[in-house]
Amino acid sequence: MATIIDGKVISAQLLEQVAADVIEFKAKHGITPGLAVVLVGDDPASQVYVRNKVQRAEQVGIRSIKHRLDANVSQETLNDLVAELNADPEIHGILVQLPLPKHLDEDEIVDAIAPSKDVDGFHSLNVAALATGKPGLVPCTPQGSMTMLRQTLDDLTGLHAVVIGRSNIVGKPMAALLLQANCTVTMVHSRTRDIASVCRQADILVAAVGSQKLVNADWVKPGATVIDVGINVEMLDGVRKLCGDVDFESVSKVAGAITPVPGGVGPMTIANLLANTLQAAQAQMSA
Ligand code: NAD
């Protein structure tokens, strides 16, 4: 039976560290790190994510300011808000909750955020920094997944990591981080041929697809470390339940270690958002 990589425990450790560092930051600079969270419209999942982020921020001593905009807000109004937040010295991190309503240009908004305040790490300059191994703000979910891998495996050097999914927010930055950690990295996606046989070669298997229980035991090499990023809703006896991209029941019998859903990567994402906010505040104070 696989070891369970407990995201609640590991994220609690990280949050404790961030809270201690925030106290030190306040003592040193006499100001509180500030995070602005922008929510457009009333998508229920986004509302839950934003509420959790704001609550956690307060718990570690980061001031969070929520800006809620109407679903039919214009691009110009949203751009103006981001410009205002960019110029505000009390705001060190800006997060625009995605996805945005269809009439808004996400790429434009992401690139309108000052790179130094881009705590999601999605700005083109931060993406370029990650790709070229330069310092910058790194997307929270892959960063959290790496922390889990480092706590589970002594050394990642030379291990074969397979990442399923090639999105800009998870798959691609995950592959970049694994490469930086000296893994041999393979990316597979919806057009990959014989995906199961590629995944079976993985020492580290990261699933970031959004497809319920796609990865079964036949895809997994015995003893592999499996990180399940997926968040899917399944109906079990008429009850809504969260499940990942990995069939936990069968894969946990084959893998060496595995993250559960919920309670795996999810809590790490928020913890890293707050770590990024502090990192952004520290960088802005020393700029
Ligand atoms: P996305 O839809 O942007 O990308 C999905 C990727 O999966 C695509 O690159 C696609 O090529 C690939 N794909 C689709 N079908 C496939 C298949 N049958 N076989 C192999 N590859 C396939 O999704 P995303 O934003 O990267 O998110 C992926 C999942 O991770 C979602 O369930 C999302 O909810 C979840 N997620 C979780 C967190 C967290 O904090 N735990 C954060 C972000 C995303």
UniProtKB/TrEMBL annotation:
Residues 139-284 form the Tetrahydrofolate dehydrogenase/cyclohydrolase NAD(P)-binding domain. NADP(+) binds at residues 165-167, 231. InterPro entries: Aminoacid_DH-like_N_sf, NAD(P)-bd_dom_sf, THF_DH/CycHdrlase, THF_DH/CycHdrlase_cat_dom, THF_DH/CycHdrlase_CS, THF_DH/CycHdrlase_NAD-bd_dom. Transmembrane segments: none annotated. Pathway: One-carbon metabolism; tetrahydrofolate interconversion. GO terms for molecular function: methenyltetrahydrofolate cyclohydrolase activity; methylenetetrahydrofolate dehydrogenase (NADP+) activity. Residues 5-120 form the Tetrahydrofolate dehydrogenase/cyclohydrolase catalytic domain. It catalyses: (6R)-5,10-methylene-5,6,7,8-tetrahydrofolate + NADP(+) = (6R)-5,10-methenyltetrahydrofolate + NADPH; (6R)-5,10-methenyltetrahydrofolate + H2O = (6R)-10-formyltetrahydrofolate + H(+). Its EC number is 1.5.1.5, 3.5.4.9. It comes from the Bacteria. Keywords: Amino-acid biosynthesis, Histidine biosynthesis, Hydrolase, Methionine biosynthesis, Multifunctional enzyme, NADP, One-carbon metabolism, Oxidoreductase, Purine biosynthesis. The keyword Ion transport does not apply. Homodimer. Catalyzes the oxidation of 5,10-methylenetetrahydrofolate to 5,10-methenyltetrahydrofolate and then the hydrolysis of 5,10-methenyltetrahydrofolate to 10-formyltetrahydrofolate. Belongs to the tetrahydrofolate dehydrogenase/cyclohydrolase family. This is Bifunctional protein FolD. The gene is folD.
